[in-house]
Write a structure and sequence with these properties.
Blueprint: H1 3-7, H2 11-14, E1 30-37, H3 41-53, E2 59-62, E3 78-80, H4 87-94, H5 96-119, E4 131-135, H6 138-154, E5 159-162, H7 163-169, E6 177-181, E7 184-186, H8 189-202, E8 206-208, E9 213-217, E10 220-223, E11 226-235, E12 252-261, H9 266-272, E13 279-282, E14 288-292, E15 298-302, H10 321-334, E16 343-353, E17 360-364, E18 369-373, H11 379-394, H12 419-441, H13 446-454
Parallel strand pairs: 1-2, 1-11, 2-8, 4-13, 11-18
Antiparallel strand pairs: 3-7, 4-6, 5-6, 9-10, 10-11, 12-15, 12-16, 14-15, 17-18
Helix pairs in contact: 3-8, 3-11, 4-5, 5-11, 12-13
Bound molecules: flavin-adenine dinucleotide (FAD).
The site of flavin-adenine dinucleotide has 46 residues, from helix 3, strand 3, strand 12, strand 16 and helix 11.
Amino acid sequence: MDGRDYRSLSLWFDQLDEALTPRPALSGDIEVDVAIVGAGFTGLWTAYYLQAADPSLRIALLEKEIAGFGASGRNGGWCSALYPVSAATLADEHGRDAAIAQYAAMRATVNEVLRVVADERIAADAAHGGTVVLARNQVQLSRAVDEVAESAEYDLGTALLDADAARGRLAATQVVGGTFTPNCAAVQPAKLARGLARVVTDRGAALYEHTPVVEIQPHAALTRTGRVRAEYVVRATEGYTPTLAGERRTIAPVYSLIIATEPLSDATWDAIGLRERETFSDFRHLIIYGQRSADGRMVFGGRGAPYHYASRIRPAYDRVPKVFAALHAELAELFPSLRAARITHRWGGPLGIARDWHASVGLDRATGVAWAGGYVGDGVSTTNLAGRTVTDLILNRDTELTRLPWVGHRIRAWEPEPLRWLGANAGLRAMTWADAAEARRGRPSRMASLVNGMMGR
Ligand SMILES: Cc1cc2nc3c(=O)[nH]c(=O)nc-3n(C[C@H](O)[C@H](O)[C@H](O)COP(=O)(O)OP(=O)(O)OC[C@H]3O[C@@H](n4cnc5c(N)ncnc54)[C@H](O)[C@@H]3O)c2cc1C
């Protein structure tokens, strides 16, 4: 891809005012202390904290395209305290204290990202406005009530909103209530990723772009243009992980797609709300999400794109006209005043899901290979926690972070094909069906709880 194509990756890339010329690729063998495969948020945060801990470390980032190319430069920009496994599930598996600690670390991470953005003068258009999640029928409201009960039990800071309070934050149609948490910031993710890349390269990390790694080996990363020998190699490839030798069933790439309107008038925003640039969603099963961008656009995304056979990733999968049309229709249904607003940007990208929906981070000391990923749709902040944790693991520090329950969690492999394809796409269809059935019948869908159980969520 050339510079112009990179700009078309997302609204966020289109808004960058830097030239997107790739940095030089690796040419020949090198030796470093830490090789990081992938220059998305996971790789960049890891480099950032390693440098902060020990400026003498020799660090090389190996990126197949350019920094921020993956999900990091294309996401919905929720820097949240969300984590893909619920506190109750974590408590069942690891105990209540561990669940509380993981979620407390997530809340602290939102503040840590904002601290770095301020300290490093990264112009990431951040607004710490929290998140409003709407309930738009009685079944969704009962889920909101359950979530607030879980929040109280695990100290998560989510409050219930009555219909007026919810509408006061976001005047969508059919609002019967909702929840609010202060623990989220809206960010411009490509500015954050590219800003981090600038910071770590200014401090001496080598960033080789257009340098795909074909295989991670003990203490080495293999590319077509050179071998990188390193005491530690960090796998930071998230949805792209199946393209690495030996990792075909580690993570399933699932696509999420987004549309963005032209900048809206102040009068339109006065009617809609999101005055503090709260990020927003609702309590349906097939996730939707949005943010009010710094330049006044409605940025609105959701799942619904198919999982592709054998975990394939192709540029064509970033754009699915049927899903864009469904998102546009949903946006108009939520906010009739936006029906005529021009959609200026449509894009998507792969996020990464582990078989049990657990994100994880770890280091195998024997091979020197570290990994972090499986964040599902919650990676904007979780990658920061991962970067700090991988740093502590590599430096052999026993800290609060290295004792969190996601550290060292071993992921069971996804089923071989065609089971993976059949299961993932059947789950997707079931969620769409369950949302419609709940809206029609006014009671929770048994199909949705069955699928949630099977998917480990
Ligand atoms: C459309 C969309 C919306 C989302 N919305 C949100 C949100 O609002 N909030 C949130 O918290 N999360 C969201 N997510 C998830 C979040 O963006 C990701 O979890 C996060 O960015 C993952 O960062 P990463 O660095 O691990 O992976 P990525 O950003 O995907 O980076 C991986 C990098 O590795 C490179 N790479 C891959 N293979 C190789 C190889 N073989 N050799 C070298 N380099 C390689 C890729 O080019 C890429 O740059 C969203 C994701 C998508 C796709």
